[in-house]
Design goal:
Elements (H helix, E strand, L loop, with lengths): L1 E6 L3 H16 L3 E2 L8 E6 L4 H16 L4 E6 H5 L1 H5 L4 E5 L7 H6 L4 H5 L15 E4 L1 E2 L10 H5 L3 E2 L2 H13 L4 E5 L16 H11 L4 E4 L9 H6 L8 E3 L7 H7 L5 H14 L4 E8 L6 H14 L3 E6 L17 H25 L4 E11 L5 E7 L4 E6 L7 E10 L2 E6 L2
Parallel strand pairs: 1-2, 1-3, 3-4, 4-5, 6-9, 9-10, 11-12, 12-13, 16-18
Antiparallel strand pairs: 7-8, 14-15, 14-17, 15-16, 17-18
Helix pairs in contact: 13-14
Length: 424
């Protein structure tokens, strides 16, 4: 059977659809790049913001318009608001997050371990194609951020067992993965619900010792989950020098209403400790504007703090009220027009610091993993990929280097694009 898989949202959703694809191939199905060629489509939805929920609905409608007769919806939007999703065209089944592990079995029946062992990881066809392998090591969250619906949709924090993580890594390496990305809703809480006192740093140490992986990267991790043992691990060149640390606001009063377990002073000291390991390390973030009660003074305080951190990149979101969260009932709502103005100001700050970070890297030699390869008319290949410190790079070569790691000299920035020269 031909099956099309799509998603909206985070790296954890990416990890999950890769796992669906692996299991479906083991059951004898074909994963196709175009919904018009599919008999069934699977969509892993998101509802972290109103925009993400709208994008999830758009994806489902687009698949239905392409002529796919059956769509199975899973993920956070499907869990939080199943009636809304069921009303969309061609939806044949809703599978909430708590039953997601049985999604493939509901289509194909039980998959034998022998069949799974004979299948190696393949990047998904189409727009979700990634050479990097996203490995889910944790799900759910025990934090109580007042704006977050994901905690409600995903449930309590749960660690994936080491043996299952190692199995997924082995499948990825057999399939040729050069970079492993460890993912989770609350990645830094790995181990807290398991016997003993294992933490994420212990898991990472075992992975480094057990496997010869060219690159290991962490996805988003809450700043309060980072201890010195984890920071010290980044002295190992196998670990990509990149932390994505969601801050959400640079104002302590706003952070308190958000239920964030950190102050700006604590965050700043954490950044200092991380940069002691490597001054050139990439630190990216998430910032929210327009949270209920955010005054002009609070926003300007946040803007000033974020300018001072010099992030290498970041995502800026407008607050989106989500029914079922404490902040939904908060008074002193911020007008949408004000949110848009603040979003632009904050994005400008993030863009400036990103370009400054890129500029500082001109002349440096980095290692780029090529995730896109395009053959040009003159028998030259154009590549795009990521450096170890999370800089998106483009380069040319006469040889197809897709899914290879190249030593690249960063040469210039053209229209928000980093251009490099392959030197080996």
């Amino acid at each position: 059977m031909n099956i099309f898989i799509d998603m909206v949202g985070c790296r954890l959703n990416q990890s999950e659809i890769e796992q669906f694809a692996f299991q479906l191939r083991a059951a004898g199905h074909q994963i196709v790049a175009d919904a018009s060629d599919a008999e069934i489509a699977i969509v892993n939805t998101c509802t972290v913001t109103a925009s993400a929920a709208a994008d999830s609905r758009k994806v489902i409608r687009r698949i239905a318009r392409a002529g796919c007769p059956r769509i199975i919806a899973t993920g956070c939007l499907s869990t939080i608001d199943p009636d809304q999703v069921l009303a969309l065209p061609s939806i044949s089944k809703i599978i909430p997050n708590q039953n997601k592990e049985n999604l493939v079995e509901s289509i194909s029946g039980t998959i034998s371990i022998k069949a799974a062992k004979e299948i190696k990881r393949q990047p998904l066809p189409g727009k979700n194609k990634r050479t990097r392998a996203f490995i889910k090591v944790q799900d759910g969250c025990d934090n109580f951020c007042t704006f977050c619906i994901t905690r409600v949709a995903r449930g309590r924090s749960r660690s994936i067992l080491e043996k299952n993580i190692f199995r997924d890594i082995e499948y990825a390496l057999i399939g040729g993965a050069k970079e492993i990305v460890l993912t989770g809703v609350n990645l830094g809480s790995w181990g807290c619900d398991l016997p003993g006192s294992s933490r994420l740093s212990d898991l990472m140490t075992k992975i480094i010792e057990r496997y010869k992986i060219p690159r290991i990267r962490l996805s988003s991790i809450e700043p309060w989950d980072i201890d010195q043992d984890l920071i010290d691990l980044f002295k190992n060149p196998v670990l990509c020098p990149h932390f994505h640390l969601p801050l959400q606001s640079g104002c302590d009063q706003t952070l308190s209403r958000m239920g964030r377990r950190i102050t700006t002073n604590q965050f700043e000291k954490l950044i200092e400790r991380i940069r002691l390991i490597n001054r050139k390390i990439s630190i990216t973030t998430d910032i929210m504007v327009g949270f209920p009660g955010e005054t002009e003074i609070e926003f300007n305080t946040s803007l000033s703090f974020i300018k001072g951190i010099n992030f290498s990149d970041g995502h800026v979101f407008r607050y989106s009220p989500r029914r079922g969260t404490p902040a939904f009932s908060y008074q002193q709502k911020v007008e949408e027009s004000t949110k848009k103005e603040r979003s632009k100001l904050m994005r400008d700050v993030i863009l400036k610091s990103k370009l400054e970070y890129w500029q500082k890297n001109i002349g440096n030699k980095v290692f780029a993993l090529w995730e896109r390869s395009e053959k040009l008319n003159n028998n030259t290949y154009k590549f795009s990929g990521l450096s170890e410190n999370y800089i998106p790079i483009e380069a040319l070569s006469s040889t197809d280097l897709y899914n290879q790691i190249s030593n690249v000299e960063i040469q210039k920035i053209i229209q928000n694009r980093v251009c490099g020269k392959i030197i080996n």
